[in-house]
Amino acid sequence: MANEMMQTAVPPVAPLSVEENEPRLVVASQWQLMWWKFRKHRLAMISLAIIIGLYVVAVGAGFFAPQAVDTYNRRYTQAPPMPIQWFDNGQFAPFVYAYKGETDPRTYARIYTIDEENKIPLGFFVRGDEYQIGLHGVPIYPINQLAITLDIHFFGPITKGEPFYLFGTDDVGRDGFSPLIFASQVSLSVGLVGVFLSLILGVVLGALSGLVGGVVDNVIQRIIEILRSIPDIPLWMALATAVPPRWDPIYVYFGITIILSLLGWTRLAREVRGKFLALREEDFIVAAELDGVPRRRIILRHMIPSFMSHIIAATTLAIPGMILGESALSFLGLGLRAPIVSWGVMLQDAMNIATINSMPWLLLPGAAVVVTVLTFNFLGDGLRDAADPYHT
Questions:
Q1: Pairing of strands 91-103, 85-88
Q2: Tell me, what's the pLDDT at 141?
Q3: CA 42, CA 19: separation in Å to the nearest integer?
């Protein structure tokens, strides 16, 4: 009797379902695997943050630059950089000391001394020279009327018109920091626009070469070999001389960009061709061809997405070459010219030893080129490693 009561007191245990016994499987996409591996690359993550910051500053160049590009002061020609003093009498009050300038009677060189009695207060979100945000300068009416005029600057002298030269001045008394920021718009956009055009040419011609084969493949590969056998700089110089010097600066900009893109697609085309040669023998590609799928759909829907990560990595590594190409042509006087401001155009002022000796701060655009190229290379290395997430 007791045994029967104990049996009725114990509640029945529900049997486990088959689904609860089965382990859960979490499937990560290729892009998730790439991101997980890419974020472990610290140098690439730092480079990505720097590149984002560079493009943010380039987009808002007028806001971040304390002065306009054409603003100058003849009283401060060849003035050295003004170091910022962040604290005044123990309180946070940034300022710079004014300069006293005089001309050496024997060498006629400008000599500047610090005037500690004259402080120029600095502040954030101050009013200064007017600038435009938008599509100003595009020679198409009414698109060029879409620009917005503002005069608020992120950092600068509180009193409008006070001298503030963070990177010194040049021969005409023009600030060296503001043109450096405005020049980033041209130098950084040349890389993006040129790589975009090279990407289109490289993917299309590489895809045709690898998928079609035969005569098409031979013609495209011979063209690539001819272009790659010519040294880059002489070829750039030869093609840059074909740009008429009387063209509008915006047309010269697009002309140089097209020249760089026409010479930068060969490596990507070779890589795309190799990928297509390997993929066209895969079962899913053969099945699509037997099913009558159009060749364009096979390329865009099946083949390119399978190695899109590799294309992104190769494109990132190609941007520094575009920036260096534009800087080299502009430095040699064969690329962009004034009034367009780019890092290469700014480096023309530092072409002789005497200028560098008296104004070494004119080499700062070269430092900007070096930093930008290094960050893009580090970012490209990280993307290239992350493009193969299964490789350890």
A1: antiparallel
A2: 41
A3: 41
- Nearest Cα to 358, choosing from 74, 101, 105, 110? 110
Q: Are strands 85-88 and 148-157 parallel, antiparallel or unpaired?
A: unpaired
**Residue whose C-alpha is closest to residue 205's, from 257, 254, 267:** 267
* CA–CA separation, 9 and 158 (whole Å): 85
pLDDT at 168 over 70: yes
Can you tell me the distance from the alpha carbon of 213 to that of 86, in angstroms, rounded to the nearest whole number? 66
- Find the mean pLDDT for residues 355-368: 85
Matching residue, tokens 């080129």: 369
Q: What pLDDT sits at residue 45? A: 93
Least confident of 14-23, 26-35, 48-57, 325-334: 14-23
If 0-12 CB within 10 Å is exposed, 13-18 middle and 19+ buried, where does residue 243 land? Answer: buried
Cis peptide before 81 (omega within 30 of 0): no
Whether the Cβ atoms of residue 279 and residue 285 lie closer than 8 Å to each other: yes
Extract long-range pairs of 273-276: CB within 8 Å, 24+ residues apart.
Answer: 273/206, 273/207, 273/209, 273/210, 273/217, 273/220, 273/221, 274/210, 275/210, 275/303, 275/306, 275/307, 275/310, 276/206, 276/207, 276/209, 276/210, 276/211, 276/303
Please give the pLDDT value at position 53. Answer: 93
pTM: 0.78
Is a pLDDT exceeding 50 seen at residue 137?
no
Structural domains in the chain plus CATH codes = 82-164 (no CATH), 180-386 (1.10.3720.10)
Helices (H), 282-363: 283-290, 295-297, 308-331, 343-347, 353-358
**Mean pLDDT within 319-343:** 80
